[in-house]
Write a structure and sequence with these properties.
Blueprint lengths: L1 H29 L2 H27 L14 H29 L7 H28 L3 H30 L4 H28 L5 H13 L7 E10 L2 E10 L5 H17 L4 E10 L2 H4 L23 H4 L13
Parallel strand pairs: 2-3
Antiparallel strand pairs: 1-2
Helix pairs in contact: 1-2, 1-4, 2-3, 2-5, 2-6, 3-5, 3-6, 4-5, 5-6
Length: 331
Amino acid sequence: MEREKTIWIRISFIVSFVLLIIKFYSYYITNSTAILTDALESIVNVVAAGFATYSIYLSSKPRDENHPYGHGKIEFFSAGVEGTLIILAGLFIIYQSIYSFFFPSTLDNLFEGILLITISGTVNGVLGLILQRRGKSLNSITLEASGKHLMTDTLTSFLLILGVLVILVTGYQFLDSIIAVIFSFYILFSGYGLVRKSVAGLMDELDPTAIDSTVKTINQKRKPSWIDIHNMRVQQYGGDRHIDLHLTLPYYYDLKQVHDEVEELEHALEDAWPGIMEVFVHADPCIPDKCCHYCQIIDCHVRKIPIDTKIEWTSLNMSKNQKHYHDIIKQ
């Protein structure tokens, strides 16, 4: 898995470097500020791909004494760096556009420039789509961020082509700066999205997708002896996922039975995740007077109260730091 991530990000770096040369050549022959916006974003592509290569290498290293949770969080940092670079490029484009509006240059060879941007945009689009799909299947936020960035680059490239075509047809060269400013705001918005996602990951913000998939797996493997699951925490760092939860078991189970139940739950979660899964389960004894209402063990020999409820486990009630008898759901 890590090898495949490295291969794709290296391909992204090489392609981005080649397209960078093509786009700057296009700007050189046209003097178009709008085309310069595309070229500047390609610099971001190259720098981001280089940083992403290192982050994927680092995130693949096993956990050690200094990093007991592994190195997966570097991928959030990588996405943040890429987003910051995009924002800086957008701000520079606004400056350059305003300057060019008041001190315009003659535009030349627009048709040739359009052709070169079309080729580079198409290549970026294909690569970006592949990176996004592989990033999702490999649980890599770095690949996904790179793919999203390239797809954004593709969209801006084709919209840019449309704008330059308008300039070519109408001859209104002042539109060059206006088009560049419009694209710069879109680039700023895209960069903000990546930075926001990066900060959320670094701050361990709740990840609904990770929690929902964990709840789904537990419900699929649910056993009557698993009386209650609560105080569940799910964290994901790159392709690594860490889960902490409390599992309520019959109070009369001996140590071996408790160990077997805990191990079965851990294996169920680990087998459902393609990356590295680390599960910590704290076993709690049931409280007969309070848990009997929803305990699903039919032949329980110490039951004091008949079953009248089945708790539906959801991401909301499993995350609460309390047993479910505090919030019984009547069916």
